[in-house]
């Protein structure tokens, strides 16, 4: 009986030695979040307001008062706000207000890039602003015909501004905003 208990203990020690010998535990490398958005397809948005434009078919548009609109991106938790104002000898004030709105973000922004937009065939003139950094908005624009119409647009995310984490969604929506601006037609 002693011999069997000796072999039992020896077998237990040997098996515990093999079981306890494992590779060194290494932490897993950090991973990147994989965000895939549908390819943007655009359709003309017609309305009773004095302008039309193309918008992403994956977005949800809702009319507000005085020809203002919200274009919602539920999966990205973002909204583009469009505000229309008629020009009544107040173009300079409208331009200053649009520029002021953009440059209020200069405190949190790393950089604000201005991209002028001029389309004399459609009589659409404006500015597109790309805001880099942890600002509340990363893109804004205004367009006008300089005589009757003035439209501003800005995008806001429903999340704490963290430029690195929202960058893919911000780029996607910024492209939509530029398409909206470039396809805008006054009636």
Briefly, what is this?
By secondary structure, this protein is of the alpha+beta class. It contains three helices and ten strands.
Walk me through this protein's architecture.
With 187 residues, this protein is an alpha+beta fold. It is 28% helix and 35% strand. It contains three helices and ten strands; from the N terminus they run αβββββαββββαβ. Strand 8 and strand 9 (149-157) form a beta hairpin. It is elongated.
The secondary structure category is alpha+beta
Number of helices: 3
Average per-residue pLDDT, rounded, comes to 85
Largest sheet: 7 strands, antiparallel
Q: Point out poorly predicted stretches.
A: none
SSE pattern, N- to C-terminal: HEEEEEHEEEEHE
Q: Portion of residues in helices?
A: 25-40%
Strand order of the largest sheet: 3-4-5-9-8-7-6
Range of strand content:
35-45%
Name the overall outline. elongated
Radius of gyration: 28 Å
End-to-end C-alpha gap:
103 Å
What is the number of strand segments? Answer: 10
Q: Give the quaternary arrangement of the chains.
A: single chain
Q: Which key terms come to mind for this protein?
A:
3 helices; elongated; 3-stranded antiparallel β-sheet; alpha+beta; about 190 residues; 10 strands
């Amino acid at each position: 009986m002693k011999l069997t208990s000796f072999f039992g203990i020896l077998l237990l020690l040997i098996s515990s030695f093999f079981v306890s010998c494992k590779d060194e535990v290494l932490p897993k490398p950090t991973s990147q979040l994989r965000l895939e958005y549908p390819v943007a397809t655009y359709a003309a948005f017609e309305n009773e307001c004095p302008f039309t434009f193309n918008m992403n078919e994956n977005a949800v548009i809702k009319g507000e008062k005085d020809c203002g609109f919200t274009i919602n991106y539920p999966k990205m938790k973002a909204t583009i706000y469009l505000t229309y104002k008629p020009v009544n000898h107040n173009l300079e004030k409208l331009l200053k207000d649009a520029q002021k709105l953009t440059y209020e973000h200069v405190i949190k922004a790393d950089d604000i890039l201005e991209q002028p937009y001029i389309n004399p065939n459609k009589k659409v003139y404006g500015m597109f602003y790309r805001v880099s950094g942890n600002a509340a908005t990363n893109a804004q624009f205004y367009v006008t015909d300089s005589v009757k119409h003035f439209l501003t647009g800005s995008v806001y995310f429903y999340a704490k501004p963290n430029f690195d984490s929202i960058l893919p969604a911000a780029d996607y929506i910024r492209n939509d905003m530029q398409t909206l601006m470039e396809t805008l037609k006054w009636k």
